[in-house]
Design a protein that fits this description.
The structure is a single chain. This protein has 26 helices and 12 strands. By secondary structure, the chain is of the alpha/beta class. Among the domains are: 209 residues, no CATH class; 285 residues, Rossmann fold. The strands form 4 sheets. A 6-stranded mixed beta sheet has the order 7-6-3-10-11-12, with helices on both faces. The protein has a two-stranded antiparallel sheet with strand order 1-2. It is globular, with a radius of gyration of 33 Å.
Amino acid sequence: MDSASVDKYDYKNDEQLAKNDLDVFVCPRCEKSLPSLDKVEHEDWHLAVDLQAQDEHGSVGSTYAAATTTTQYQQSAYSQTQNSRQNSQENACENAHKNAQKGAHPFYTPPSQPPPSATNRSHTNPVIHAGRVRERDEQYMQNELQKLQFQYGIYNSDIEPEHETDYPCSCPIHNYQRMKWARYAVQKMWSEAVMYPGEKAYNDDTRYAPGIFSSNPYRMRVISPYGYFQSGWVAQKPQPQYHAQSIHQTINLNNSLNAEALRNIDLHEPKYNIWDASALEAQLSALTMAGSTDTDSPEFDVARRAGDRKNSAKRVSEAPHVESSSCNKSSEKRPHSVSKLSYFRKAIGIKTSEERILHRAEKRIHEAGELRRAVLEEERGRWPDDEWRRLVAVYQEKIGIAKMVADLRARRPIQYLHLLRAGYFEPIPVAWANQNSNPLKFSIDAAAGWRGITPAWRGYEDTAEERLYWILNHREGSVGMRMKPDIISELNMARDRMAQAVEPPPQYYDATDTCHTQHTSEGYSKQVMPRPFVAYDRPEVPTDDTMILLDVSGSMDFDPMRPIYKQYLITGYYASTQPKNKDVARAIIRRFTDAMSKHDHSFEGYDLVTFSNEASYIGRINHQNLATMWRNVRLGGGTRVMTGWQKVKELHFQKHSESATHHPEYGWQAGPDTPMLRLLLLLDGEATDMDEFELDLLSLSWAHVTIFLIGVDGCPHHHRHANELQRISDVNHHVSFVDAQGNMPERFVTHELLKRHLGYAVSMEEFQQMEELPAYSET
């Protein structure tokens, strides 16, 4: 791909951005006009193009000069752009804050701190730098792959379309492959930033290293899901038997390579305490003193040979004359004969055993010093002051990894440094929530060479899932390893759960349920009964803040569909006879808010926030204005729950800002007197950033989230997601969930949601009283 096409591909929205920004930057290399806020990212893009040119054309000298120039531009421009960037972001956040308070937004006490604003730290490292370069087009590439899969009827996310030809082809598949080739320089940069000692980078390029000459371990050991023989004239179709075989081989190879990687990094970890510098110096001093009396040293060898000649002459003069014999010659011992080679060994550079021991000790001390310096420098850069370090320590204590972090720092400093550079030991920056891509949204693809952060990264879908399971496996109180289920295990567990569905309790029947009023089908669908309620958090108190977060992605308005499987391959979908998810969600919200109003004796309503690609505040909803407020709900887009979660947190802390503090990097921090947030989250599937959301919830003790998962009747995908939410609920008692599928009894769902939201076992009698609506007055 030429430079012009890459430029168009990466910066297609720059003209519109420049129109909205008065501060324009003109690149001296490509003479392109850009907003000044994009100056640093644009220089990073030039660096990636230079690296790509170096790989393709071998222009080492010119590329090095261009890369050096780019780095100088970045360093000189960085300090100049920080003030303008932060002021622009603060103004944008202030405008958004004002817009949010227009219309039905409630009047709150002004916050004691400035509104949340995203800040960029001046600290950087190889992982941060490579992440900034990668995140520019990461989401674009993911979207392009999904479009391509949909175009060619491929419904499994782990299968890429293939079209093998011996002639130049401009089909969509090959165009996508060319975009992948153009990113190999970025992939190389990312691999070099996250690789551990002893590892080698690779990719899925088949142009120059086919077959056994490829360094990709998956190339020859995993079969293609398309099989062996395919026509080159049309796009291939995956075959169920080959796809199943490919999954089994990939799982086995992932496990094997992960185990090998863990063994290798353990071998590379220092076998000494790098923080005990005095012990290392004492060891070196002892070896140096021992080396000064080395009997194999040249100085000692000269004196020794002089003494040997003198003693030998004396013995010859004093001894009687005896005929020599072969026996006497063979039995005579020649002391220190090996030392005659000492000068020769030293001349050709061969070290003695003592010198080698001393050299290894000196090397250990040097490596320990370098590793210690790198760790301390990274810690000082990431956590520059006492308040920053205090927040990080509190975060580690809350998620239960404080002891693990201390052990890594003392015993496995190489792994500690890698995870430290990736931000594993600190809260998620608040600015990441509204970004299209961030270091927690990067795809992991072992077969293509896109790496994760931890040594055992193979098998995860993205970096957020990898980090989530790393914390679950290493937090205090965890029993055994919580390994991420593979594709086969996930599907088998989903089918097992689906088989546990039973008829819902008959006492919850209601003729006004959505499935009955829309006459989709007769009766209720079988439901998987939720686990018996167990109270962990304290019950609700009047000061708690109840809010509702609703998924309004495009799938909420789709006709419910369930997949058709052949082994593990999805071959199509067919319709399910049940109401649309948006209608079910509205009915549940109406029942829930009515019951909560009766319970709280407060009829002003509850805050409703919607999210898809962006979040919107709808207003306070109650029984009287629900129909009016619902007209403001707009459906369509993706499912990015972190955008909605960030909006909910901002609204919550605007109400209670006097008891909270705001950190420029990590956002609002609840104080001991901050009221608890009780959130009802309604979803109809897995959000693209669900793992990031679950990561954030692990560290929050001031929020309790109840998730209602709406599913298609008999859909394995719904039960797979339900199993995942159950695993999260088991380890984080601030998260609970209820799911229902098909034609659902809405009263039963509402009752179960109220138990978990209020934090106590609501009896059937109390529930029936909460369903009785009070008389509303027009005042």
